Amino acid sequence: MAHAPRLKLYATIKGASEPDLDVLCSLGPEFEVCRQGPGTADIAYEGGYMAHEEIVDLISRSVARQGRAWIDVIDVEAWEMERYLIDPEGTLSKTIPLNEALEGFAFE
């Protein structure tokens, strides 16, 4: 019997260097990485708990000079979602209950 994932991570990356994308593509078999074009990729993970902060840091470094990234981390058991918006100026993050996901992510 398959177990439902406890943690889900979805990311969109734009403006990363090709060497940085190569590093992201080697995250491991549990990550689905789909290159969308030069400097652009989507990443998906659905599985058990992991140190997602390390993945966020890795993605942040990959776009630090010129790109941007959007990352959603969903903790199914806690029923909350953390959204990261990353660009060369820094990282914004916000955590909200999943029931408020549509209206809860208006970054001021």
Give a structural overview.
The model has no long low-confidence stretch (mean pLDDT 91). The protein is an alpha+beta fold. The radius of gyration is 14 Å and the shape is globular. The protein has helices at 18-25, 52-62, 101-104, and strands spanning 7-14, 31-37, 40-47, 68-75, 80-87, 90-97. The termini are far apart. It has a 6-stranded antiparallel beta sheet, with helices on one face. It is built from 3 helices and 6 strands, in the order βαββαβββα. The chain has one domain (7-104): Alpha-Beta Plaits (2-Layer Sandwich).
Compact description:
This protein has helices spanning 18-25, 52-62, 101-104; strands at residues 7-14, 31-37, 40-47, 68-75, 80-87, 90-97.
Helices and strands, with pairings:
Layout: E1 7-14, H1 18-25, E2 31-37, E3 40-47, H2 52-62, E4 68-75, E5 80-87, E6 90-97, H3 101-104
Antiparallel strand pairs: 1-3, 1-4, 2-3, 4-5, 5-6
Described by strand count, sense and barrel closure, the largest sheet is: 6 strands, antiparallel
Classification by helices and strands: alpha+beta
Radius of gyration, in angstroms, nearest whole number: 14 Å
CATH class: Alpha Beta
Amino- and carboxy-terminal Cα gap? 44 Å
State the main characteristics.
108 residues, alpha+beta, Alpha-Beta Plaits, six-stranded antiparallel sheet, 44% strand
